[in-house]
Amino acid sequence: MEVIIGKSHDELSKAAAQVIADVVNSKPDAVLGLATGSTPLALYKELIRMHTEEGLDFSHCTTFNLDEYVGLTPDHDQSYHYFMNENLFKHINIPPENIHIPSGTTQNYLAFCEWYEMRIEECDGIDIQVLGIGSDGHIAFNEPGSSLGSRTRIKTLAKQTIEDNARFFDKPEDVPIYAITMGVGTILEADTLILLANGESKAQAISDAIEGPVSSWCTASALQLHPDSLLYIDEAAAAKLKMLDYYQWIQDKKPGAPAGS
Ligand code: PGA
User: Which protein residue has the closest C-alpha to ligand 1 atom 1?
Assistant: First the structure.
């Protein structure tokens, strides 16, 4: 795990966007795993800027989103289909047929989940996966107790998540209770993971994820099992880390480190 701590979420998001741009530039048909929520907004803004001003080309890329609410149609303004279109896809040159987002309205969730996993495999897997983290430590909608080997499936949201997301809906009772989500096992198969976290509401989850035991009670802790994960964390979200000085020391010493370290 590479833990990068910074003052500004915007600056960290720009650094994360550069990592994604490097992947796209070196592999034009890269497969990108994408996330929703307030966390990746600055990252998407930077990718849009890179596309508009620097010609970053997504025309051969394929994308897979992590999750979607069950019951929301793609045109619902709180659906993740809508979010992705508004905040990224309509501003870049990704062909619509290369975009994959779990369906919140399929007639057969079991078959859809199997198809989603199969499509990821057919595309030779995800090169780089963007992740946020829930205040309960979830990645995608893998709530506490989700198997670390889980695959794409339906998940019942935790009350904490429903509360956290109520701010986006008119009434708390409008927040969906179920979601379709990639599993922790699905996520761990991506070549590189990028997790972003900002704000003090994420501090406990970040501490559990990085310094706690690997446990299904904090599914983000599964990143400890991944050989190539980058965590971009602002100071508020990093506030409960015990080894803060060490992570900073590693970053300071990085320019002089032997190649491959
Ligand atoms: P947020 O959600 O980016 O809106 O904080 C993150 C998550 O729940 O994964």
Answer: 37
Q: Which residue, among 117, 133, 122, 106, has the nearest Cα to 35 in the 3D structure? A: 133
Q: In terms of pTM, does the model score above 0.85?
A: yes
Clarify whether 136 is annotated catalytic. yes
Confidence of residue 36 (pLDDT cuts 50, 70, 90): very high
Alpha helices (H) in 128-172, listed in sequence order: 159-165
| Secondary structure (DSSP) of 6-32 | ES-HHHHHHHHHHHHHHHHHH-TT-EE
Q: Is there an atom of ligand 1 within 6 Å of 98 CB? A: no
- The confidence score (pLDDT) of residue 110 equals 97
Question: Which of 62, 14, 18 has its CA nearest to residue 40?
Answer: 14
Angle of helix 41-54 relative to helix 9-26, nearest 10 degrees, comes to 50
Q: Is the CB of 39 under 6 A from ligand 1?
A: yes
Residue 160: C-alpha distances to residues 58, 75, 96, 136, 138 (Å) = 36, 26, 34, 7, 11
CB atoms within 10 A of CB 184: 24
